[in-house]
Amino acid sequence: MPKVLISDKLSEKAVQVFKDRGVDVVVKTGMCPEELIACIGEYDGLAIRSSTKVTANVLAAATNLKVVGRAGIGVDNVDTPAATQNGVVVMNTPFGNAITTAEHAISMMMALARQIPQANDSTHQGKWEKSRFMGVELYGKTLGLIGCGNIGSIVADRALGLKMKVVAFDPYLSTDRAVELGVEKAELKDLISRADFITLHTPLTDQTRNMIDAAAIATMKKGVRIINCARGGLVVEADLKKAIEDGHVAGAALDVFETEPAKDNALFGMDNVVCTPHLGASTSEAQENVAIQVAEQMSDYLVSGAVTNALNMASVSAEDAPRLKPYLKLAQQLGGFAGQITQSSISSVSIAYSGMVADLNTKPLTAIAVQGLLSPLMESVNMVNAPVIARERGIEISEVKKEASDRYHTLISLTVTTERQTRTVSGTLFGNGAPRLVDVNGINLEAEIGPHMLYLINNDEPGFIGSLGTTLGDAGVNIASFHLGRPTKGSDAIALLQLDQEIGESLLEKVRALPQVHQAQTLAF
Predict the structure, then answer these.
(1) Which residues pair with 275 in a beta bridge?
(2) Quick check: is 231 catalytic?
């Protein structure tokens, strides 16, 4: 039974989801890093919010860990590259708190436009300062939306309901999607120069960090108002403070800060700045939704192999997982076969999917094929980190999808190019879903892959099979299956044998010494 540790406070309903789906769950909150490191090796999964820091040291100690699930969107507290290198899937829950966060952004915009927090504080003090708190309408104003994903698109919908004009920048926003949402698609520079209000809904990356700085602010309208409920670090706080003091920016509403918890900040105490303590996802509905969602996602992965909302691995739906299962085994065997017979540096890998398999989600198949290919060459490779490891080593990976071949209704072909040669191996599934190797470098053969295999390149001449059988038989090695293939009569042939046991180096040397043998290699699966 998979075992999951919940190290931050989650809803009891989330705990029950794990239990109902056959996952053993332990709740230990408030641990220091040393305590987490001491116990994490026992668990297959780790469910967190924002308090737990999943560092490289934690991941190094997590010898059994398969998945980290973040109940929320941001994974700033997870070392995702280290998780990938350790073969740990990192999941988040991007939809569970989207409405809540979008509503908070709209609330912050309204509060900023009408100076509600300041007016509230003044009125509670017994003052009646109607003339001091002169606001602006949202009606007819232009909202600049930076980021138009799950949350941004909801903000756009709500702003359009307020009769604002919405101009959106998002590098992944298509023209058709912009029309569907009712927003105007624009470049960032154009948006910044036109907007009366600017709201940020983009992740914090190397490309977006400090995107609202003095230079960007200088191109904005005088009197612009800025709302950030996305991530601290998108806005240079010192530059924003100066622009507010100079009167160029009319005000700002911030739910996130460069340093959190934000106990001391240069923007605190300014009359035209509204601040909240990272409340974007803080509604009871959202907290429950993301907790349940992360429990469902982690359980699905640990029990059935379904992958949802992973940041470092291709998604596999619960419906696809059982359909992909036999293909995953086939792809891994093809990769393992090619990797074990490859003797020189790999420069590229191309995987062709033909027929029925081409209609499936092939990204996980490619990942596990690359895992099989690299595993004979290095340790600790799995389908999570294999594509990253390949990329780091300059190995180009490509996919091709084709119609069904004349011979096979479904076929996967793996072509590996090295500094010396190009080699292709192909496989299919038989009627019972059993993987079969059906082609090696254009030579047809139908072979079932077993734990102990012997791969040979030999002269196609009489007496070879007898000599080989005698050599193995004299050593007490039984042949489970024997497959031969050749391109033409008398040319070099391929022999692939499944053996009942592993053979040692001394017996392998005797096989290599047979006069018909050019190459002999043991393979393990």
Answers:
(1) 254
(2) yes
